[in-house]
Amino acid sequence: MDAVEEVKNRLSIEDVIGEYVQLKRAGRNFRGLSPFNSEKTPSFMVSPEKQIWHDFSSNKGGNMFSFIMEMEGVDFKGALEILAKKANLDLNQYNQGKQAFSSGIDKDKIYKVLDVATKFYQVQLSRHRQALSYVFEERHLTKETIILWRLGYSPNNGSAIHDYLIKQGFSEQEMIQAGLISKRQGRVSDMFRGRLMIPLQDPQGQVIGFTARQLPNDDYGPKYINTPQTILYDKSRHIFGLHLAKTTIRESKFAVITEGNLDVISSHQAKVNQVVATAGTAITNYHLKGLVRFASDIRLCFDADKAGIAATERAINIASQLNISLNIINLVDGKDPDELINKDPDLWKKSINNYVYAIDWLIGYYQSQFDLSTAQGKRHFTDAILPTINSLSDPVEKDHFLNMIAKKLNIKREALELKSAKSSIALVKPVYKKPKVELIVDPKEAIEIAKVEDHLLCLMLKHRQLRNRLVDLNVDLFNRQQSRDLVSLLKKEPSLSLEQLNKLDLISDYVKIESLQYEELYQGLEYSEIQYEATRLQVRLIEHYVKQQKLNIVKQLVGSDEKTTELLLKQASQLDELLRINLGEKSNAQEK
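RESULT FIELD:
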């Protein structure tokens, strides 16, 4: 038996989900309020029998692993590790010989070392007058905040944490692996000395490292020192404060990223909890992927200095690939969030809603840096902004901003395109390539269409005679991969029973979710009603498909040659015919 199956055997899905959602018995299932949407009527279902969950409001669903991935913002491996701990299961025994464990490092032991070190630093803070004065009087943090964030102090004698951990039974090798001590030329010394200790915690709240801040009147060393790269800590992936921010981010549907860890702590003290930080301004693809699991509206609050501008430009490029709405916060007053919060917490609350779309903000920033009434100013301005505009993945958005810049500079659009072309290495060898057209679907509409797909398929799963409809339905009508996989299978083998489908590993969870939806929505209906509902859903699915494809055609018609135009218009005519036939079927169903 593998680790996944052992976790499933040891844990019940209702107990796992019950730690996050208040569940009440509803017949054979459990029901609760959606953790993904604000609602008054419970639409979140858990089936102990099928070991799956489904949220009817957001149309999300899956097994206990997918639930943990959604709630904790982790990948499957992270979910497995979380659930293995709940099940008191040692994953090492299932990974003998694999590279991830071949280093000989015991991750659980490193977590333990760091937790003990955190408690040691907390005790030291309570005994150090200067450090206490700094957090209470200069940073205006409360005792509750200090305890919540587990702030501490590292003694300055050079071996305090080393000596303490040796007494607790840890080895020097384990301390080095945790990033707590360094060893040079046989000499061992503490990594952090005489500093305010800010624990870095993973999304589940486990300490994985530290940021150590220099105290005032101490000119020795840099202002901040971070834990070096370890098996637990990777600054390119770590999001500071996410363990305390993720619930509010999911509920408010946006996240704020600041530069400083203490900015985050002050913000949470001011009850603005959807705030996190990265290591300085070094935003990476991993950071934004980690946050988009909770919200697709990301707001940056960086200084408008060279580092902040460079970070914004990098973030725009990444956000464009991930379909994230990236915005820049304009502070009402004050140079950073911490200063603003200390002045008036309400000003910070007001600031996070005073934001500008990142590209608009960047254009405005560069506009203020150059004299756009001169040829030289226009050249410098386009040199600065065009690389960011050209990196945008959506052609409509890119076209919008090129038109805006041309109008702002009072120049022809062709001049901008020519400048972009000259700077593009790809144009050294001209090759015609059909442009990729990506359609932006409204999130609410996407959820509704996903529901249509699910409801149509759950009817076909329960009533095999409805599957003959799939003969005339193209797989491309279905937007999600799990729907396409199931449709493809049913088109090939329409006689498969529900029991047989449940045994197919790749789609078994999806089939179980479909069964749960049928039981909740359609159980007990007359077959004539089922037929009518299937026809209605089929027409709705085709209407959406035709609408999206026509939008695609309209975009491709722009600038197309005569032959391509003729082909595209023919495709549009075929779409109209598809819609006409199915609307006719709907009318026939209504008459019957």
